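Sample log: Glycosyltransferase family 4 protein.
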Amino acid sequence: MRVLFLCHNHPALQAGGTEIFARNLFRELRDRHGVEGLLLAAVTSTHREALPGTMIQAAGQATDEWLLWLDHFDRFFLSQPDTYGLATLAPLIEELAPDIVHIHHLLQIGVETIDLIRRVAPRARLVFTAHDFFPLCPQEGQLLTTEGRLCHGPSLDGCLRCFPGRPPADLAMRQLQMRDLLGDFDRILVPSQFALGRYLADGWPAPRFAVMPNGVPEGPAVPARPAPDGRRDRFGFFGHINRFKGSLMLLRASRMLSEARVAHRVTLHGGAAYQSEAFMAEFEADLARAPDASFRGAYAPEELGRLMEAVDWVVIPSIWWENAPLVVQEAFRHRRPVICSGIGGTAEMVRNGIDGLHAPVRDPAGLAAVLRRAAETPGLWDGLVEGIRAPVGLAEAAREHLKLYQAALADAAA
């Protein structure tokens, strides 16, 4: 079987959950199941400068992982207008002759690339994983209003409030375009029941969808942090530092605990690239006001286990509907209970009072109360650790994807 993977970035340049999982899945299928193919990861001038005469660049030493340089992307329509540049992909795809084309994101790649693939590889089966809500929501796929309120689904009136300068026809055209484009896919995968519900509630056809959890590499858990006094008061944040992931909520909760003289430590790990000056100024001000919090910066995926050794809890205080954060699975792999906002796919993955705790969303005082309970309740941490189930492993995720690919090919041959 030959596969072509496309993703909106490469984890060597931007270590997001989608990028990490896409590469891990590609390598697992290659190394364990003999699948041949290519991983194309889109990049822009933000990450790399273009090379003269080609859209293709090397991605490290791997001969089957390449960077696809694409710029000029329209984030509202998810459109890549550089059709001249895209045309240079045609001979590459024709030579690969993929049986399966699996697209993990439309950012940078654009709807035009899908049309190109259909023309030059008409026998390939197309698979799309909706790792987030970009096909539904033009507001950066967040299902979050410009005022920061949770959005239960796109509507013309609601979207016009977020995009007052857009004519209604643009919003209607975007919705029709997304449904038409993804209607060409043989399978649409979502990693959580919550995400499936959001797409079906918007009227997408249920038969094309399948819930397919992501997976994390198998391996031993790091040891628990020694706590001779019995207190489990070390909290870790792992993820991109931005407004949506809730880092400001955590810093403000930590400040409240410090003001109440509650012993604790909060450590934030993650990159802060591509953030606005206004957000970074707010982040740095909140960090300065939280004496028991520290920011350690970006980390490589292979460092995550070592960093988790120093924490008792993993905190995910997101203010938007997360789909299925990979860090939840990583936390459970290392036997760390998770404290998360009680909404979306995260609340689906973390069972309140069983393997973690839910906190109110966008509420630093409410989060501080949950953190205090976690730190001061004897035996709570141990009981939640006992409730943790092993997450889906990468090997299992690869087997399930391979079955789905084979079923799609069998349907086409029938």
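Observation: Residues 2-215+393-413 form a domain with the Rossmann fold fold (CATH 3.40.50.2000).
Observation: The radius of gyration is 22 Å.
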